[in-house]
Specification:
Radius of gyration: 16 Å
Mean pLDDT: 93
Order of helices and strands: HEHHEEEHEHEEEH
Largest sheet: 8 strands, mixed
Low-confidence stretches: none
Helix content: 25-40%
Number of strands: 8
Strand content: 25-35%
Structural class: alpha+beta
Number of helices: 6
């Protein structure tokens, strides 16, 4: 899978370069080795994980999590940068990429100082553009904590829809407490339609 994804790295990087010149406050770019240390440093911010099933605010826990995803052959990893300062402010990825069924799961986190500014929506928009235009996928989905309403509203504004039949209860770090999660997804056609409506 890594070899398969490698062929998309250059076109994805070229597309991401165009995001730098957009009106968005931040942009994504394919993860490079030089970003890893910074991501490990900012990734323990507790505000990142307040809606997570398994918080990773302890350095050792975060390091294990991050090293595992760096080795994940089915993920396409991206750094989130502030447009004005070029500083690393977060991380996003397409994971569980399935080229046979043309779908992937999406995941994003931003450090606390970059939350609540509308950045998440535009980062998702950029990542969806990579998924549908570069990887030629047909569906992107995610599971979101029902209590994470800022993320839910952001996704719905991009054209995602909730599939009630696929909502789930998932185990958490608190063994006696399961987390209610929405299954939220979007098709390539719906994303294109949403972009057209927003530009009209």
């Amino acid at each position: 899978m890594m070899k398969v994804l490698e062929q998309y790295r250059q076109p994805a990087n070229m597309l991401c370069q165009s995001f730098r010149h957009s009106e968005c406050q931040a942009y994504i770019s394919p993860l490079i080795d030089a970003d890893i240390a910074t991501l490990k440093q900012i990734g323990t911010d507790p505000t990142i994980w307040r809606f997570a099933r398994f918080p990773k605010s302890e350095q050792a826990v975060f390091n294990r999590y991050f090293e595992s995803l760096l080795k994940d052959p089915s993920s396409f990893l991206f750094t989130v940068r502030d447009k004005n300062t070029q500083e690393v402010i977060g991380f996003t990825r397409l994971k569980s990429i399935d080229f046979n069924h043309k779908r992937a799961e999406i995941g994003t986190w931003l450090m606390g100082t970059s939350q609540g500014k509308g950045i998440n929506k535009y980062i998702k928009k950029q990542l969806l553009t990579v998924a549908f235009e570069i990887l030629k996928l047909e569906e992107v989905y995610c599971y979101v904590n029902r209590e994470n309403q800022p993320s839910v509203k952001s996704l719905l504004s991009l054209g995602f829809v909730i599939n009630e039949d696929k909502n789930r209860l998932s185990p958490t770090h608190k063994k006696e407490v399961d987390m209610a999660q929405y299954y939220i997804h979007i098709s390539a056609d719906r994303f294109a339609q949403t972009l057209w409506q927003q530009q009209a």
